TrEMBL record:
Domain Phosphotyrosine protein phosphatase I stretches: 1-134
The protein, known as: Arsenate reductase
Entry annotated with the keyword Chaperone: no
UniProt keyword annotation of Cell division present: no
One of the protein's GO biological processes: response to arsenic-containing substance
Organism superkingdom: Bacteria
Key words of the record: Arsenical resistance, Cytoplasm, Disulfide bond, Oxidoreductase, Redox-active center
Species for this entry: Aquisalimonas asiatica
GO MF annotations, alphabetized: arsenate reductase (thioredoxin) activity; protein tyrosine phosphatase activity
Length: 139
């Protein structure tokens, strides 16, 4: 099973989803993330994941390619822009949409912004955990 997490810039939400999926998935699951554009990794996303012992620094902010779409069994869009801009998928590829808010747009103090990153991180963790349970059972 090849799972692809897709967002606008592959900087926060899709990077966190990839990190959780890699951490939770069985060896039968290939996990990638990509963006419609490339914005580089968001340092706050790296910190939020590191707080849970998951290092996403080896992951690269990657632009979506046709090959990624062709290889994907499941594409999970994690923002509205990626959902709207997602190219036509091959007929055998399933698609899920998770309308997650962008923590990079949070405003306020550093503590308030990090609280938003943690909130989104925790929502992503819940969704990825459920998804990996379904995938491991062949659903």
């Amino acid at each position: 099973m090849n799972v692809l997490f897709l967002c606008t810039g592959n900087a926060c939400r899709s990077q966190m989803a990839e990190g959780f999926a890699r951490h939770l998935a069985s060896e039968r699951v290939v996990v990638q993330s990509a963006g419609i554009e490339v914005h580089g990794q968001n340092e706050r996303a790296v910190v939020a994941m590191d707080e849970l012992g998951i290092d996403i620094t080896p992951q690269a902010s990657t632009q979506l390619t046709d090959a990624m779409l062709d290889e994907a069994d499941l594409v999970v869009t994690v923002c509205g822009h990626a959902d709207e801009q997602c190219p036509l998928l091959p007929p055998q590829t399933r698609k899920l949409h998770w309308p997650l808010e962008d923590p990079a747009r949070a405003t306020g103090t550093d503590d308030e912004i990090m609280a938003e990153f943690r909130r989104i991180r925790d929502e992503i963790r819940e969704r990825v955990t459920e998804l990996m349970e379904l995938v491991s059972h062949g659903e």
